[in-house]
């Protein structure tokens, strides 16, 4: 099973080949637009370049072109850095053109002609800034929607692969389970119905687990919350309302394959504790812990405060179906489960994340 694990996290952004030129430009300049100081500095720098260029062309251009170099500066600044630095560049450009290039020159005297020129400049750059800002807003919204669609598509693909993989494994698991039950019933035909009932119970439990696992709303849920619900289901199914299950798990994530296997193992151990650890109708506590060990390893501990292990437990491990299933699941996780009596029964499994 470990050899067939697939990744469950989809890409959070689109590959560059799927972006338009406008989206690539928007993505490339996003860092500049996020910094207010940097974007405002770009607006001032664009104004300075436009002013220097206008001074250089002053001897060539007539007085009828006071804003010639400022229009492209405002447009480029808005497109590259956003509407705020574009507005900064536009205001500085308007004031500089009014003072230096509109008649009377080097004066802030407002004549009818200069007022009309400034009004036209303000109108044109205002429209340019609004159009570019709206275009960028629409582009960013479309890019976010494309990223969401890409992420959902990738997630659906991975889940479908996991589902195919899980169905194949479950069919093999069911076949092995029925074969083991058949061997137990072969020596005592009276045990056939009991063996079939145990198989049916396990299959119903597996069905509940998979309904939870493949619910899209459960994909991002913490492991502890998920296992707590499974244990609550087991206690309710066993009619053992006096038993308390405590789940203490560090925040961590497992891929679907390992989470499924771990869930099946927890179900087997907890089911065994509910059946054998406590006297009928008696109270008890089952504690489930999952701790990081470092170096990509974790330890699962399932402990109860019940009777503890029986005297012939070592011989039962190899013969009882539940323990054989648990050992098989532990091997699929790349570990080996060990049992001990420590004020009850304790099962420990070290495995790789």
Residue runs with pLDDT of under 50 for 5 or more positions? 1-14
| Overall pLDDT confidence | 79
Give the proportion of residues in helices: 55-70%
Q: So what's the overall shape?
A: rod-shaped
Oligomer: single chain
Distance between the termini: 14 Å
Q: How does the helix and strand content classify structurally? A: alpha+beta
Strand line-up across the major sheet: 1-2-3-5-4
Order of helices and strands: HHHHHHHHEHEEHHEE
Q: Supply the number of helical segments.
A: 11
Main sheet overview: 5 strands, mixed
What does this structure look like?
- Helix 3 (36-56) runs antiparallel to helix 4 (70-81) and helix 3 packs parallel to helix 5 (83-101).
- 62% of the residues lie in helices and 11% in strands.
- A hairpin with a 2-residue loop joins strand 2 and strand 3 (297-304).
- Residues 1-14 have low confidence and may be disordered.
- It is rod-shaped.
- It contains eleven helices and five strands; from the N terminus they run H-H-H-H-H-H-H-H-E-H-E-E-H-H-E-E.
- By secondary structure, the chain is an alpha+beta fold.
- The protein has helices spanning 21-28, 30-34, 36-56, 70-81, 83-101, 112-186, 192-213, 223-238, 256-276, 313-319, 321-332, and strands at 243-249, 284-294, 297-304, 337-341, 345-352.
- A five-stranded mixed sheet has the order 1-2-3-5-4.
């Amino acid at each position: 099973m470990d050899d067939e694990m697939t990744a469950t996290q989809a890409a959070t952004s689109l590959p560059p080949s799927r972006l338009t030129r406008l989206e690539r430009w928007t993505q490339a300049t996003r860092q500049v637009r996020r910094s207010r100081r940097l974007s405002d500095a770009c607006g001032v720098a664009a104004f300075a370049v436009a002013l220097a260029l206008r001074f250089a062309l002053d001897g060539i251009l007539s007085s009828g072109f006071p804003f010639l170099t400022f229009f492209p500066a405002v447009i480029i600044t808005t497109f590259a850095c956003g509407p705020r630095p574009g507005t900064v560049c536009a205001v500085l450009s308007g004031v500089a053109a009014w003072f230096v290039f509109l008649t009377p020159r080097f004066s802030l005297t407002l004549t009818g002609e200069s007022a009309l020129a400034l009004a036209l400049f303000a109108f044109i750059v205002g429209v340019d800034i609004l159009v570019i800002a709206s275009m960028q807003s629409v582009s960013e919204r479309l890019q976010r929607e494309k990223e969401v669609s890409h992420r959902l598509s990738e997630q659906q693909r991975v889940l479908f692969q996991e589902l195919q993989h899980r169905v194949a494994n479950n069919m093999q698991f069911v076949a092995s389970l029925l074969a083991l039950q058949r061997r137990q019933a072969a020596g005592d035909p009276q045990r056939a119905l009991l063996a079939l009932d145990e198989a049916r119970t396990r299959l119903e439990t597996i069905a509940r687990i998979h309904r939870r696992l493949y619910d899209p709303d459960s994909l991002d849920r913490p492991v502890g919350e998920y296992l707590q619900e499974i244990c609550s289901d087991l206690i309710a199914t066993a009619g053992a309302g006096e038993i308390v299950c405590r789940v203490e798990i560090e925040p961590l994530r497992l891929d679907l394959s390992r989470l499924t296997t771990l869930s099946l193992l927890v179900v087997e151990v907890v089911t065994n504790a509910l059946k054998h650890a406590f006297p009928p109708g008696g109270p008890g506590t089952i504690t489930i812990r999952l701790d990081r060990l470092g170096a990509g390893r974790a330890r699962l501990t399932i402990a109860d405060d019940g009777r503890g292990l029986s005297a012939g437990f070592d011989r039962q491990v190899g013969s009882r179906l539940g323990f054989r299933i648990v050992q098989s699941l532990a091997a699929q996780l790349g570990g080996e489960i060990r049992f001990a009596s420590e004020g009850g029964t304790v099962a420990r499994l070290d495995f790789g994340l």
